[in-house]
Amino acid sequence: MSAESTADRILAVLEEDAQASYAEIAERADVSKPTVRKYIDKLEEEGVIVGYSADVDPKKLSSQSIAMVGIDVESERYVEATRELRDVGEVEALYTSSGDHMLMAEVRGRDGDELGDIIEESILSIEGVTAAHPSFLQERLK
Fold this sequence. Notes:
The protein is of the alpha+beta class and 142 residues long. It has helices spanning 6-16, 22-29, 33-45, 78-86, 112-123; strands at 65-73, 91-96, 103-109, 129-136. The protein has a 4-stranded antiparallel sheet. Helix 1 (6-16) crosses helix 2 (22-29) and helix 2 packs across helix 3. The protein is elongated. This is Lrp/AsnC family transcriptional regulator. GO terms for molecular function: sequence-specific DNA binding. Keywords: DNA-binding, Transcription, Transcription regulation. One of its GO terms (cellular component) is cytosol.
């Protein structure tokens, strides 16, 4: 058995395959199914596991484009702007950032034109948002 904690082994399996059954997770993490259930319930309750998702290769999406958008916000409007950004339906994920921008958003649209409209009409229109810098994803490499 690995020196890695039980929770870490279970999380590693889930990060590889969010659809793995409890039996598969138990086998790969070298624990029992009841242990998997107990740890997953606890990790969800503690907010460590916040959801389950599918990894998508944007190049294979015939009717969808994805951009990572760096967003700058006035510091005095940060909380309010972040709340509003979380409510934008096309914002799939929103992250705080220590890089060039205060926030990073994963934004999805039908094509580049729609992404541009979403950025202009739904993101830049939020009071306190001063800039949005999109990077359009092209091919998933890993």
